[in-house]
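Working notes for the structural subgroup meeting. M.R. asked for a predicted model of this chain before we commit to crystallization trials. I am recording the input and output together here so anyone reviewing the notebook later can reproduce the run.

Input as submitted:
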Amino acid sequence: MGIGAVSEVRRAVFLDRDGVLNRPVIREGKPYPPAGLHHLEIFPDAPAALAALREAGFRLYVVTNQPDVARGVQTRDEVEQIHRALSDALPLDGFYVCYHDDGDACECRKPKPGLLLAAAEEHGISLRESYMIGDRWRDVEAGQRAGCRTVWLDFGYAERGPAAPADFTVRSITEAAAWILGEDHNRTGCE
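Returned structure, recorded in token form:
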């Protein structure tokens, strides 16, 4: 890079999968992933919300825990089929997946920030300039630990919320994208 050259800051929006991009299966007030491709239902507003974020210059990465693979409930191939369908329908740049369960004590299972750190390292992403959108406490805490600003989609699940509040709380991916775009506009001083 020559003298006076300015490098572009790469920014991303990290997205949880189930409950953010697609409808989760709710049992006893708790969210679960779709059992397979036949149960995948992408939220109708997700394509436009993600397109707006992409147009604003954000890279879009899915960061998702899929412990049903470790539990023997779902195969890795079934998870990857869902990811291919999401890739076909949405402007995503990649997927970072933890296939472990809590007992595995890995570094990638949210609320640990390993998936976000791996994506940032691999793609030169500034975590300080990035956002994490999730519908569960693990997502928000992973984003906070990685140094991102966080958006919580609060659907009132029968489980605890984040230990520390997210930067913003919403009820849809559309609201999340609008807040991020407003934040970005305010931070960059664009007219």
